[in-house]
Design goal:
4 helices
Length: 104
């Protein structure tokens, strides 16, 4: 199952990620705690300006969700759709030892 790139960008943007542009068409997302504390959690997510890649293949979606420490594509899609909150994501990253919440 492929996903629309705009759906991924919008979903991540609503959950504490900031989309960063590098070069002309390389878009990355990086997770920030409370919008301020930059974390090491990041992934390349393509670019909205490229018509060829408006829909990402399943292989690319797998690369994105794995680099963001989700266990499954379903978990990633739930996060993007809203039932999965930013705070729940922070807790999941903390439990996996990927971030330290003591400084927040």
């Amino acid at each position: 199952m492929s996903l629309e790139l705009s759906f991924i960008h919008q979903g991540l943007g609503n959950k504490g990620f900031k989309i960063e542009v590098r070069g002309r068409d390389h878009y990355y997302c990086r997770f920030y705690i409370n919008g301020e504390i930059k974390t090491k959690i990041k992934s390349k997510v393509g670019g909205l300006s490229r018509r060829k890649y408006k829909t990402l293949s399943d292989n690319l979606v797998v690369r994105i969700y794995r680099s963001l420490y989700f266990d499954s594509k379903n978990q990633f899609v739930e996060f993007l759709e809203c039932p999965y909150t930013e705070e729940e994501y922070q807790r999941m990253l903390y439990e996996k030892g990927q971030i330290d919440l003591s400084s927040t």
